[in-house]
C-alpha cells in the first residue's frame, strides 16, 4: 500500500482519482452488435454466442428439467446459506415498502403519490469462473417484492452450454420468470429490442465487464432504463487505533481480490495503525489463492493518514466510496455525517462480506463516486412513483384563478382556457 | 384529429409510436462545446453566450440588486399565485419525506436505509419568449425540502443580458443559492465540469430543447446524474360520454400549444363523443393566440375509439403517457389499473394545467414512454438512499457461517477470510 501522510488538500483530487478507461474502441463493437440483434433477433444472438462463448446452442431457454437437475447438484449446506441470505434480503427490502402519500393541498384538491412496479425487468448475471449467485438474490428478491410481472434473467453459457448450478438454483428459488443462456453485449441488446426468445424489458439491472457496461449505456439511448452506471468495485476503510489491524487488512484484501482494478483505500488518524495494517496485509496476502490479482490491486491501494476525524470525513465525502467501513472510537460521527457512500459497515464485526452476501442490504451499489448522486439498488429501483390528482368543483374554484394567472404569464393561453371554461360553467 | 375506429391490436405499436428524431448531427456540436468548456471554463462560456444568445456579458452571475429589481416588476396578483402554487408544491413534496427504515434481520444484525440529500444540484430553466417560472418552483422546492446544500440555477440571458423577472422572483422566493445567466449546451457543460463561476454539480435537472437534451445525456458520460431523458410533451385523455367534450377539447389544446411535436391522444369508447370533441377542438382552436402551433400538433393527434374500458386500459399502458386524464363513469378502474403514466388527472374538474402549475404534484414527468420505468421528479430525485449495517459479536456468530459458505462457492477466499478471522477470535 502506498502511504500518504497528511496530504495537502490541494492534492486530494488527484489522490482520490479513479483510473479512467477509454471505452471508445468498445463503443463501435457494441453499436454493431446492437444493430445486428435489432435486425436479426435470435439469429444474431446465436452467432455471437458462438463467437464469444464458444458454444452453439439449440435453444437458449433454460428448461424446467435443467433447473431441477442443477438444484440437485447444489450441496445442502450451501442451499441453507442461500436461503438464509434470501430471508434477510427479503426482510430488509420488504420493510422498504411505502404507503400511498396522500395530501389534500387545498380544500377540494386531492393529490397522491403511489409506487407501482416496473412491469418487465431484465437481470444480467455474469458468467466466468466464479458463479455470482449472490447477485441473483440481490436483484430477484426486490423485483419480486415490488411486484414486477416479468423477471427475465440472462447469463452466459459456459463451453458446455450450461449456466452454473448455483445460479439456476437461486434464480428458481426466488421466482425468476424466464432464464436465458445469453451473455455480454448480445444479452443487453436482446433485452433492449426483444427477440423471438428474449422478451423486451423496460429496465436492465446487473453487473458485468466493460462490454456489458457500455452496452447498458447504449441501451438507455433506446429508451431502456438501467440500474446505474458501473465501474470497478471499491472499499474505503476509516479506522483508528481502536480497530483491529488484522480485520481491517482482511477487509481490504476481500475488496482487492475482485480484480486488479479494484480500489482499496485506508484512511486513519494513526500512522502506527497504518503500519500495522500494512504488515497484516502482507501476511494475509501470502496465503490467498487469488494472490496475484489481489497483489496488483493492493499495489494500487492507498493508505492515507490524516490529522483528525473532521479531515477524514471531508476526504471520504469527496471520494464517495461504494463500500465504507468505519471502525473508530467515534463511529457515530461518521455515520451521522457521511453524505456520499453506497453502503456503510459499522464496527469491528461488520466486514464488507456481510453486506455482499447475507446481512440483508443490497450489494449492487454505486461505484466511481456515483454515490454522490445515485442510490444503491433497493426496492424503489424496481418501481416508479406516479402521482394522481383529483379536483372537485370546490377545488377548481379554489385553485383556478392562480392557474389562470400563471398560465397567462407563461404565455400559454390554452392552459388558461382549460381552467376558464370550467370556472365559467361553475360560476353560471 | 385523425380518427381510428377499433384499430386492430397488431397496429397498436405503429399507432402509438412517437416521432423519433435523429440527434447524431447535434452530438458532434455538443461534444465540441463540452471539450471547450472543460478546457477553457468561463472563456468558452462567454464565447458561446455571444454566439447563441447574442449577448456579451461582463459577469454571468445574477446580483442581489438584479433580483430585487426584478421582484419589484412582477405584479402582485401573479406573486400571490406563485406563492399559492409554491405552498401546495411544498405540502405535497414535504409529505414524501420518509423515515429511516430499520430492520434487525437476525439477532445482532442491524440494517437500515436512510435518504440523504444530493449535496450539489444544477437546475436548468429554458429561456425564450415564455418564461417558465413554474419549472423553477417544481425543481427548487423539492431540492430545498431534500436539504441540497448548493442549488444552482442556470437560464439563458435574452439579448439585453437579462433573465425574465418572474424566473428571478421565483428562484429567489424558493431559495436558490446561485443564479447564472447561461443557457444551452454551454450551461450543461459548465455544470458538468465546473468553471470559475459555475459550480460543478452532481445531478442536473430541467427541461430544454434538443441541444440541452443531448447535452444532459453527454453529462452522464462524465459521471453527472440527470433527472430523466426527455422528449416532447404528451397528453392522453380517456373519456366516455359522461365527460364534457368542451373540457376535453380544451385539455387536448392545452397540450397541443406546447409545440408542433406535442403528442395528443384521445381514447374513448364512444364514436359520438369522439366527434363532439373533434368539433369542439375546431371551435376553440380558432380563438387561440398560438393557433398555428396548436393546429400543427392537433393535425398529428389521434382520436382512438375502442370497444371497452379493458381494451382502452391495455392500449394506454402500452403507450405510457406523460399526462393521463381520465374522465369516465368508471375512473376507479383506470386509477387502480394504470401501470404506466407520469401523472394522472381524475374527473371533469382536473385539467392538466392544474398539475402543470399549482395542485402540488410535480410537472417534470417522463415522456416518450419512459413512464414504464422512470418516476416523475419527486422528493427522492434530490436524495439518494444509503444503507447501513452493524453486526454485533452475536450477529457475526449468527451470520458468519452462511457468508463463509457463499463466499467460498463464489471462489472469493478473501471474502470468506474476513469472516473466518473474526469468528475464530470470537470462538477462542
Automatic annotation (TrEMBL), chains A, B:
Active site (record annotation): 322 (proton acceptor), 323 (proton acceptor)
Name under which the protein is recorded: Histidinol dehydrogenase
UniProt: Zn(2+) binding residues: 255, 258, 356, 415
GO molecular function, one term: histidinol dehydrogenase activity
A Pfam family it matches: Histidinol_dh
Chain residues that bind substrate: 233, 255, 258, 323, 356, 410, 415
UniProt function note: Catalyzes the sequential NAD-dependent oxidations of L-histidinol to L-histidinaldehyde and then to L-histidine.
Protein source organism: Winogradskyella thalassocola
Amino acid at each position: 500500500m502506498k502511504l500518504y501522510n497528511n496530504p495537502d488538500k490541494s492534492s486530494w483530487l488527484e489522490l482520490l482519482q479513479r483510473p479512467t478507461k477509454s471505452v471508445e474502441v468498445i463503443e463501435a463493437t457494441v453499436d454493431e452488435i446492437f444493430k445486428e440483434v435489432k435486425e436479426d433477433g435470435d439469429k444474431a444472438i446465436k452467432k455471437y454466442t458462438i463467437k464469444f462463448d464458444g458454444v452453439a446452442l439449440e435453444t437458449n431457454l433454460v428448461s424446467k428439467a435443467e433447473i431441477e437437475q442443477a438444484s440437485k447438484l447444489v450441496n445442502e449446506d450451501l442451499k441453507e446459506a442461500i436461503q438464509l441470505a434470501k430471508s434477510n434480503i427479503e426482510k430488509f427490502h420488504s420493510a422498504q415498502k411505502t404507503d400511498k402519500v396522500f395530501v389534500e393541498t387545498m380544500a377540494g384538491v386531492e393529490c397522491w403519490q403511489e409506487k407501482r412496479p416496473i412491469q418487465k425487468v431484465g437481470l444480467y448475471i455474469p458468467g466466468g469462473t466464479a458463479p455470482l449467485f449472490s447477485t441473483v438474490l440481490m436483484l430477484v428478491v426486490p423485483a419480486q417484492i415490488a411486484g414486477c410481472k416479468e423477471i427475465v434473467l440472462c447469463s452466459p453459457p459456459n463451453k458446455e452450454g450450461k449456466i452454473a448450478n448455483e445460479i439456476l438454483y437461486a434464480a428458481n428459488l426466488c421466482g425468476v420468470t424466464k432464464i436465458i443462456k445469453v451473455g455480454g453485449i448480445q444479452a443487453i441488446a436482446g433485452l433492449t429490442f426483444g427477440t423471438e426468445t428474449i422478451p423486451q424489458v423496460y429496465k436492465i439491472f446487473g453487473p458485468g465487464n466493460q462490454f456489458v457496461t457500455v452496452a447498458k449505456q447504449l441501451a438507455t439511448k433506446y429508451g431502456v432504463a438501467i440500474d446505474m452506471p458501473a465501474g470497478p468495485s471499491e472499499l474505503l476503510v476509516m479506522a483508528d487505533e481502536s480497530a483491529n489491524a488484522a480485520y481491517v487488512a482482511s477487509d481490504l484484501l476481500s475488496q482487492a481480490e475482485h480484480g486488479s482494478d479494484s480500489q482499496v483505500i485506508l484512511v486513519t488518524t494513526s500512522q502506527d495503525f497504518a503500519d500495522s495494517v500494512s504488515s497484516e496485509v502482507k501476511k494475509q496476502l501470502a496465503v490467498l489463492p487469488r494472490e496475484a490479482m489481489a497483489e496488483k490491486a493492493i499495489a494500487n491501494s492507498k493508505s492515507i493518514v490524516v490529522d483528525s476525524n473532521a479531515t477524514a470525513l471531508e476526504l471520504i465525502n469527496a471520494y464517495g466510496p461504494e463500500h465504507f467501513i468505519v471502525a473508530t472510537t467515534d463511529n457515530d460521527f461518521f455515520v451521522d455525517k457521511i453524505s456520499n457512500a453506497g453502503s456503510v459497515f459499522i464496527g469491528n464485526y461488520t466486514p464488507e462480506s456481510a453486506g455482499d452476501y447475507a446481512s440483508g442490504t443490497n450489494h449492487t451499489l454505486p461505484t466511481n463516486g456515483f454515490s454522490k448522486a445515485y442510490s444503491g439498488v433497493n426496492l424503489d429501483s424496481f418501481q416508479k412513483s406516479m402521482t394522481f390528482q383529483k379536483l372537485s368543483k370546490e377545488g377548481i374554484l379554489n385553485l383556478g384563478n392562480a392557474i389562470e394567472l400563471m398560465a397567462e404569464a407563461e404565455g400559454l393561453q390554452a392552459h388558461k382556457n382549460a381552467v376558464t371554461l370550467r370556472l365559467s360553467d361553475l360560476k353560471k
